[in-house]
C-alpha cells in the first residue's frame, strides 16, 4: 500500500510541477511577445535585446527543464542529468539572458 501511495504521489507532484511551469511559460511568452511587438513598432535594437534577454531568462530554462525531464525519464538517464547538467545549462541560459538585458540598457540607437 505504501509503494502505491508513493507512486501516485510522485505522479501527482509531477503533474502539479508541470502545470505551474506551463503557466509560468505562458506568462513569460506573453511578456516576450509584448517586448517583441515594441521592437517591431519602434524599430529599436534595445527592445529587441530586451525581448531576447527575457526569453533566455524565462522561457529557455523552463523549456529546458521540461525537455530534460521528459527525455531523462524516457531514456532512463541517471541522476547526474538532474543534479548537474540541467542546472548548469539552465544557469548558463539565464546568464546569457541577463547579459542581453544588460546590453539593452547600454546600447544607443
UniProtKB/TrEMBL annotation:
Membrane-crossing segments per the record: 14-36, 48-72, 84-106
Top-level division of the source organism's lineage: Archaea
Keywords: Membrane, Transmembrane, Transmembrane helix
Pfam families in UniProt: DUF7521
Protein name: Uncharacterized protein
Organism: Natrialba aegyptia DSM 13077
Amino acid at each position: 500500500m505504501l509503494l502505491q501511495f508513493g507512486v501516485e504521489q510522485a505522479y501527482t507532484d509531477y503533474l502539479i510541477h508541470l502545470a505551474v511551469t506551463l503557466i509560468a511559460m505562458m506568462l513569460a511568452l506573453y511578456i516576450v511577445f509584448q517586448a517583441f511587438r515594441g521592437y517591431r513598432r519602434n524599430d529599436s535594437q534595445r527592445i529587441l535585446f530586451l525581448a531576447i534577454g527575457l526569453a533566455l531568462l524565462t522561457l529557455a530554462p523552463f523549456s529546458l527543464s521540461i525537455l530534460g525531464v521528459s527525455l531523462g525519464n524516457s531514456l532512463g538517464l541517471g541522476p547526474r542529468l538532474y543534479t548537474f547538467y540541467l542546472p548548469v545549462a539552465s544557469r548558463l541560459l539565464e546568464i546569457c539572458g541577463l547579459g542581453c538585458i544588460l546590453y539593452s540598457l547600454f546600447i544607443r540607437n
